[in-house]
């Protein structure tokens, strides 16, 4: 028998097909379409569907579509072609570790997608990623940290909340090795989140093995472009979230506009479903001591929720994100907590005069904090339902990745010449920019 098409599409189409659509098929999996069978089908002038009578031509098209869906799913696997009704509109998410940021993201980091976090040095990129790992581990998931910079701080990760005994860490020798490890982990379907720190440290093998000072124009851009084509498809199928941390660079010769750009070429910008720009805004001061930074995160790209949202929260040195402050700020922004004059209220409960006293009240009354957190989560879920119905998202028409299964095997086998036969547009662009800069 032919493999059945996806359940939703089958139910929708079956009610509108002629009875002949369920005819038996021979053992070889193909329908025995004889002249007599075709004649019997064409005699039928109408097929009654759920919406009433359908013309003979429409019924025939539906029958053919039914068979095409079955054949495609048989050749390429279940789900290769499906109706949108077969897949939930809302993309599953995982918490970021900060309710304020969850609100800006539309609920959290989307599963099965690529996320890029970029910003200046010491702006909080790694801290943000470590909190995402901690949240995945709390839910019982598996996490991997690919430390391309060879600078992972285990002590700090513990303070942020990461279970370092369960965290898998890799320190690859070069970019190709990093992507081979990443792709194998993602294809296994056994990990829930992978953090790559950072894109700038994903040095191509040709550069590592070559002499210092030997020009390798566009090599990293080619590496990123080739790898992401495969990794993005595999992540979508396995449901693994991949977070790339990236550094800022400055364009040469830019007189107008923003001279900042991220390293690694253009590929990551296109393949990322979410891009976060994180910056330090103010110092967090207690008395005369600076205990942290107030950071501002702008969602510059979001394919699963409305983009351009902004989140502000405190990062405390040695501890990470101030989760309690995020609860209060998110509650206020979602109208769970009301501020009347200088006072904060949760329903009829007065939390305190001013932000610091309100935070002190929540520390002393964890049951009230839990109630506010639950109300915030419910408000976020309600917002996600509205977004799912209206789909007012930026940069994506569907919100889904219908990519075919990527072939197994290493992305970059040992000894393979990455430059052989490549005509990469990004490398050309980067080369032109460097030549323009050297001539300026």
Automatic annotation (TrEMBL):
Domain of life: Eukaryota
Leader sequence segment: none
Gene3D superfamilies tied to this protein: P-loop containing nucleotide triphosphate hydrolases (3.40.50.300)
UniProt keywords, alphabetically: ATP-binding, DNA damage, DNA recombination, DNA-binding, Nucleotide-binding
Species this protein is from: Raphidocelis subcapitata
Designated name of the protein: Uncharacterized protein
GO biological process: DNA recombination; DNA repair
Pfam family membership, one: RecA_N
Protein family according to the UniProt entry: Belongs to the RecA family.
Function: Involved in recombination ability and DNA strand transfer activity.
Annotated InterPro entries: AAA+_ATPase, DNA_recomb/repair_RecA, DNA_recomb/repair_RecA_CS, P-loop_NTPase, RecA-like_C, RecA-like_N, RecA_ATP-bd, RecA_C_sf
Biased composition (Low complexity): 18-27
Any one GO molecular function term: ATP-dependent DNA damage sensor activity
Lipid biosynthesis found in the keyword field: no
Residue ranges that the Swiss-Prot or TrEMBL entry lists as coiled coil: none
């Amino acid at each position: 028998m032919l493999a059945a098409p996806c359940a939703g599409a089958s139910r929708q189409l079956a009610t509108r097909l002629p009875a002949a659509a369920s005819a038996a098929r021979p053992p070889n999996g193909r329908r025995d379409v004889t002249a007599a069978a075709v004649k019997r089908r064409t005699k039928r002038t109408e097929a009654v569907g759920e919406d009433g009578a359908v013309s003979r031509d429409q019924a025939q098209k539906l029958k053919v579509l039914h068979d095409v869906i079955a054949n495609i799913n048989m050749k390429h696997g279940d789900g290769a072609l499906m109706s949108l009704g077969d897949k939930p509109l809302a993309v599953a998410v995982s918490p970021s570790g900060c309710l304020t940021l969850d609100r800006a993201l539309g609920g959290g980091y989307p599963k099965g997608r690529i996320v890029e976090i970029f910003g200046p040095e010491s702006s909080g990129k790694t801290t943000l990623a470590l909190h995402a790992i901690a949240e995945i581990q709390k839910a019982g998931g598996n996490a991997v940290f690919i430390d391309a910079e060879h600078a992972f701080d285990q002590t700090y990760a513990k303070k942020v909340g990461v279970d370092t005994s369960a965290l898998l860490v890799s320190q690859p020798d070069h970019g190709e090795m990093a992507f081979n490890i990443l792709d194998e982990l993602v294809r296994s379907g056994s990990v829930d989140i992978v953090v790559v720190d950072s894109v700038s440290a994903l040095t191509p093998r040709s550069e590592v093995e070559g002499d210092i000072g030997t020009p390798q124009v566009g090599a990293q851009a080619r590496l990123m472009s080739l790898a992401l084509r495969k990794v993005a498809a595999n992540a979508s199928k396995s449901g693994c979230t991949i977070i790339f941390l990236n550094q800022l660079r400055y364009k040469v010769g830019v007189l107008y506009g923003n001279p900042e750009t991220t390293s690694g070429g253009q590929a990551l910008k296109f393949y990322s479903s979410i891009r976060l720009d994180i910056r330090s805004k103010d110092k967090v001061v207690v008395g005369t001591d600076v205990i942290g930074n107030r950071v501002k995160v702008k969602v510059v790209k979001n394919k699963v929720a409305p983009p351009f949202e902004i989140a502000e929260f405190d990062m405390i040195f040695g501890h990470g994100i101030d989760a309690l402050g995020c609860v209060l700020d998110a509650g206020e922004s979602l109208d769970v907590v009301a501020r009347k004059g200088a006072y904060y209220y949760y329903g009829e409960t007065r939390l305190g005069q001013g932000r610091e006293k309100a935070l002190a009240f929540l520390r002393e009354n964890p049951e009230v904090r839990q109630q506010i957190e639950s109300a915030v989560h419910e408000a976020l879920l309600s917002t996600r339902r509205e977004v799912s119905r209206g789909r007012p998202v930026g940069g994506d028409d569907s919100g889904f990745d219908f990519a075919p299964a990527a072939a197994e095997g290493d992305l970059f086998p040992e000894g393979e010449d990455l430059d052989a036969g490549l005509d990469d547009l990004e490398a050309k662009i980067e080369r032109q920019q460097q030549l323009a800069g050297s001539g300026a």
